Structure formats: C-alpha cells, structure tokens
C-alpha cells in the first residue's frame, strides 16, 4: 500500500528490490505507473523485470510490436533520438514504451570496471569493432578526449585497478587500433544530461522510458532525478565468493525457482535444487533455461526429482557462448545445435550468436593458414603443452608479425 500511495500522490518513490516489482504492479493503477524506470543489476533479472513492466503497461502482446521499442546503448549514443521518440505520440497504440538497454549512462570512474571487462571480453573474442565501441563509450562517460590517452597514462586516466587487470597488453593494442579508427571522432557530449533534462521537462502521459543497465553510480544527477520522479529497481546480486554472497545468490535462485514452479504447478526435491546449483552455479539465465527444460521434461508429473536433473542437465558453469563455439570447434553437430537452441531460448540476440560463430571460424582459418605456412612446421598432433610453449608459441608470434607486415604493405 505504501508503494501505491507514493505513486498515487506522485511523491518521491523509494528504490525497491526486483522481488517487490510484482507487488508494485499489482497495487498501482495502470494509469499512474511511473513514467520512467531505472532497472540495474544482474542482466537476466533486469530483463525479467522489464518484461513485467512492459506487460503491465501494454498487456496486449500484439500491440507491443508497435508500442514497445528497444534501443541498445552499444550501437551508438541514442540520447537525442530517445528524447525525440519520447515526445512523439504512439501512432498505433495509446501507450508507448522505450527501453534503453545495456545503458552506459551511469559509468563513472567509481564503477567503470564492468565496462572495462566488456572491452576485454570483446577484444578476446576478436570483436574489435565492439571493443572499440565500448572503449569510446568509456572515454565519453569519463569525459576523456581520445587524443589524450597514451600507453604510459592509460591506467591512470581510466582509473584501472591493477589487481583486477594486471596485464594491459590487450588495452594498449586496442589503443593503437583506436588511433586509426573512425570511431575516434565520437562525440563526447553528455548523453546523461540530455536524458536528465528530458525527464525533468516530462513527456506525454502515456509514454514511458525504461533504462536497464548492469551498474549505476548513485551519486550522479541523473540517478537522483529518476529516483525523485520515477522508480528505481535494484536487480543486483552479490558476485563474490564469501558465505554472505553465496547465500544471497542461493536465495535469489531459489526465489526465482519457486515463482516459476508455482506458475507451472510443480514442486522440486531439495536434492534436485542442490544438484542444479552445483552444476550451473550462479547464472540466473542458464538456471532459468534449464529449469524450463526440467518442467517440460517431467510433463504431467508434479514433482521434479534429483534423477531428472542428472538426466537433463549438463555442466554449464562456462559461458554458454563458449560452450557453443567449443562444440563447433569439436565438429560436434548435436552439441552445437543443443547450445544454439539454448542460447536462442535464453533470448541471446541472434547477431551476437552469429558473431561468435564467425569469430570462431576466423580463428580456425588463421590456425589452418599458420599450420600450412613454414612457421607451423614445428607443431605436430599430440604435442605436450610444455613443448608447444617452447617450440611453437614463438613461431606463432613470428607468423603474426609477418601477417601484419603483409597487410600494411598491401
């Protein structure tokens, strides 16, 4: 009732936990739902929360096609475009929802580690365009001109934690690439300020903005404005390995599981849950996917047993994308199709999956070309790892250097 009263009187709304979203939507009249939502934390929980809010605002799934738009932050800085859309009435529907997904508006020097991890992961996956986009987004949010960044000051300028990122060769390599790339002309205007002004001015009554992100800095002005005029929903879960962190992770998975089982009129043995936790670890998206498989597997049977889990689940602690590319590398069609289906079911973007497959094939082509060259003569099947390090790694470096020289000359 407190949440309903806050919404009814348009007072400053509290920051709520994602577990309270059902109560908020249930107790708040649809006509007075917040005009702006900030949802931050664990990605899958964020997207589940977004789904609940969108369904509450536009219950008709068919109408969502025209009334619900997703703008991805990583594609560009969409701030001006979003403001224009928010101030335009829906053409087919009376209500409109715009979601700014994977937003980096709240990245500052106090919480930039997650964006740096995205840069590193994209670089290691050979997604250099993606790594550069994340890199320039980071510079923009930290208000750093690309030309000011040098190899000897990059760690200090970006406030990089040496313990978390002891080796920055990947970043300095990216720095060299950035100087040749057209992305270096990126506008470093303040997208957060543009969004903040739009929220302060307000937009048409039936238009709603949802911002989803993995991290926030609660000290910045945009956060304070949203908390004052809209609704902030915390989907974060401790990621550490301390007992308190593990207990919170366990509780989050258990609460999610119980809601899903109740919706499907199912029960689960305690041992079955423990096995799921052991096999999957704390990965809410993967946990959700495999829980859905178990629900379908038991069919009309009410209870999920430990043997059902053993029968259906695989060890999935690794990133599912790596599972897919690993099975592709093994030429295992059945496993590849299994993980492809699992990723699509988990709402991974098809282009993200395609890029991962493309990058893996590129690696295979590069490996094959190396082995066919004179540099690859030292390698042989069954070679021990220490022999590989001693006799082959240096040849790989020489091959790479020769390849880069050839590319520059041509």
SSE map:
Elements: H1 2-8, E1 15-17, H2 21-27, E2 36-41, H3 43-57, H4 61-67, E3 68-72, H5 79-86, E4 96-101, H6 113-124, H7 128-141, H8 154-157, H9 169-180, H10 191-201, E5 207-213, H11 221-229, E6 231-235, H12 243-263, E7 267-268, H13 270-280, H14 284-298, E8 303-304, H15 306-312, H16 320-329, H17 333-345, H18 350-372, H19 385-391, H20 393-409
Parallel strand pairs: 1-6, 2-5, 2-6, 3-4, 4-5, 7-8
Structural account:
The chain is of the alpha/beta class and 410 residues long. The protein is built from 20 helices and eight strands. Strands 1-6-2-5-4-3 form a six-stranded parallel beta sheet, sandwiched between helices. The chain has a two-stranded parallel ribbon with strand order 7-8. Helix 13 (270-280) packs parallel to helix 15 (306-312) and helix 16 runs antiparallel to helix 17. The termini are far apart. 29% of the residues are buried. Residues 1-12, 182-189 and 315-319 have low confidence and may be disordered.
Shape: globular
Structural class: alpha/beta
Count, helices: 20
Total DSSP E strands: 8
The whole-angstrom Rg is: 24 Å
From the structure provided, what is the oligomeric state, counting identical versus distinct chains? single chain
- Characterize the biggest β-sheet: 6 strands, parallel
Supply database-style keywords.
410 residues; alpha/beta; 6-stranded parallel beta sheet; two-stranded parallel sheet; 20 helices; 8 strands; 56% helix; 9% strand; disordered N terminus
């Amino acid at each position: 009732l407190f949440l309903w009263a806050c919404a009814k009187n348009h007072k400053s709304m509290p920051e709520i936990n994602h577990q309270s979203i059902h109560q908020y939507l249930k107790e708040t009249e649809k006509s007075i739902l917040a005009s702006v939502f900030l949802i931050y934390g664990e990605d899958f929980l964020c997207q589940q929360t977004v789904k609940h809010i969108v369904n509450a605002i536009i219950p008709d799934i068919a109408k969502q096609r025209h009334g619900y738009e997703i703008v991805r932050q990583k594609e560009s800085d969409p701030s001006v475009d979003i403001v224009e859309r928010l101030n335009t009435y829906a053409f087919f529907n009376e209500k409109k929802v715009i979601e700014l997904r994977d937003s980096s508006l709240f990245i500052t020097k106090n919480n930039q580690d997650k964006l740096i991890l995205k840069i590193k992961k994209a670089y290691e996956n050979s997604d250099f365009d993606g790594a550069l986009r994340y890199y320039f987004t980071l510079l923009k949010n930290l208000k750093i001109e690309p030309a000011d960044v040098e190899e000897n000051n990059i760690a200090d300028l970006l406030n990089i934690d040496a313990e978390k990122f002891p080796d920055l060769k990947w970043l300095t390599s990216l720095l060299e690439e950035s100087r040749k790339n057209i992305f270096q002309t990126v506008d470093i205007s303040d997208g957060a300020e543009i969004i903040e002004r739009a929220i302060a001015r307000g937009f048409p009554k039936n238009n709603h903005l949802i911002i989803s992100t993995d991290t926030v800095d609660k000290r910045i002005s945009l956060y304070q404005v949203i908390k004052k005029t809209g609704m902030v929903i915390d989907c974060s879960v401790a990621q550490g390995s301390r007992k308190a962190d593990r207990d919170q992770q366990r509780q989050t998975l258990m609460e999610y599981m119980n809601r899903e089982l109740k919706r499907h009129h199912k029960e689960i043995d305690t041992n079955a849950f423990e096995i799921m936790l052991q096999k999957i670890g704390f990965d809410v998206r993967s946990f959700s996917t495999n829980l859905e498989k178990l629900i379908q597997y038991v069919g009309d049977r009410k209870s999920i047993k430990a043997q059902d889990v053993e029968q259906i689940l695989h060890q999935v602690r690794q990133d599912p994308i790596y599972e897919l590319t690993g099975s592709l590398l093994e030429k295992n069609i059945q496993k590849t199709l299994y993980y492809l289906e699992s990723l699509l079911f988990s709402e991974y973007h098809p282009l993200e999956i395609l890029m991962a497959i493309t990058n893996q094939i590129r690696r295979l082509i590069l490996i094959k070309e190396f082995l066919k060259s004179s540099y690859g003569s030292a390698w042989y099947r069954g070679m021990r790892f220490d022999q590989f390090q001693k006799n082959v790694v240096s040849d790989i470096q020489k091959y790479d250097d020769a390849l880069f020289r050839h590319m520059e000359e041509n």
